[in-house]
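To the wet lab folks,

You asked to see what we're planning to order before we commit. Fair enough. Below is the target structure as tokens, and below that is the sequence we designed to fit it. If anything looks off to you, flag it before the synthesis order goes out.
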């Protein structure tokens, strides 16, 4: 069995963070041909589900770059390498010092199987942060609460931020100096002068999560699609790894081949040819 994992942003999604009708149709054709596929994304479970609505990925999903794995069939969530108390304090203190609001992402799993998403955030200093709350988070099922309400011993998957690109870069450089942390960053959709950043435990990565799922599902080979640094860990173990035309140079160098641009349904066009859909 061939098993495919797609990155989302910059890969399967277009620049509007959407699955185009052509891509949705292609995935449906892939399913009808009994080709197994799922996603491996840096997005949180909550964020990813909002952009994937309308198309069901039946196999386990990898979120937060491997921190969280969700099995949709059994509605079961598992965690690996959650942030510890000292790491949480380091990230939050650094953000607050630079007057950037940290968004602390937690998942609460109840005994009956229900899953709740709680996001605790600091004081919103800038309109870009308020826009994140009003335009995106407030429209999801997330329970938004002030950072002061964060319970002790919370299961924290990652901490996110958004703000002035220069300030985010400064925080990114600082946090990546810690052996136990990894921070990823990129331009925000609002413009290059703003950047987002996501921080989680360094041991968590897409590669380890994808490899575990490959073994669990009994797949004989692994095919991966991606565009950025957080995809390298799964590229390194994939039998076939494909970078989109918009991918970073280092990703293209690590890929089996470079395919079309993410905003031109590059992955979908490749799949139709590769699997004769």
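Sequence we intend to order:
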């Amino acid at each position: 069995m061939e098993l495919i994992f797609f990155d989302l942003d910059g890969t399967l999604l277009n620049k509007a963070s959407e699955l185009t009708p052509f891509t949705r149709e292609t995935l449906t054709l892939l399913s009808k041909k009994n080709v197994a596929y799922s996603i491996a994304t840096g997005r949180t479970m909550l964020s990813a589900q909002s952009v994937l609505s309308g198309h069901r990925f039946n196999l386990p999903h990898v979120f937060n770059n491997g921190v969280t794995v969700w099995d949709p069939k059994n509605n079961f969530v598992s965690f690996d390498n959650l942030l510890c108390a000292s790491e949480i304090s380091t990230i939050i203190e650094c953000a607050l010092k630079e007057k950037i609001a940290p968004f602390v992402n937690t998942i609460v799993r109840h005994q009956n199987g229900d899953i709740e998403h709680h996001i605790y955030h600091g004081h919103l200093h800038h309109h870009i942060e308020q826009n994140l709350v009003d335009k995106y988070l407030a429209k999801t099922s997330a329970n938004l609460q002030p950072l002061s309400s964060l319970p002790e011993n919370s299961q924290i998957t990652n901490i996110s931020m958004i703000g002035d690109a220069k300030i985010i870069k400064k925080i990114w450089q600082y946090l990546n100096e810690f052996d136990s942390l990894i921070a990823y960053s990129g331009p925000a959709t609002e413009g290059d002068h703003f950047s987002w950043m996501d921080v989680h435990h360094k041991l968590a990565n897409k590669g380890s999560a994808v490899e575990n799922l490959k073994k669990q599902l009994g797949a004989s080979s692994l095919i991966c699609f991606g565009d950025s640094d957080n995809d390298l860990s799964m590229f390194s173990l994939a039998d076939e790894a494909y970078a989109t035309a918009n991918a970073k140079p280092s990703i293209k160098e690590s890929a089996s081949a470079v395919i079309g641009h993410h905003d031109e349904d590059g992955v979908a066009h490749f799949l139709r040819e590769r699997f004769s859909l």
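Structural context that might help your review: The first helix runs from residue 8 to 12. The CA atoms of residues 108 and 116 lie 5 Å apart.

Thanks,
Computational group
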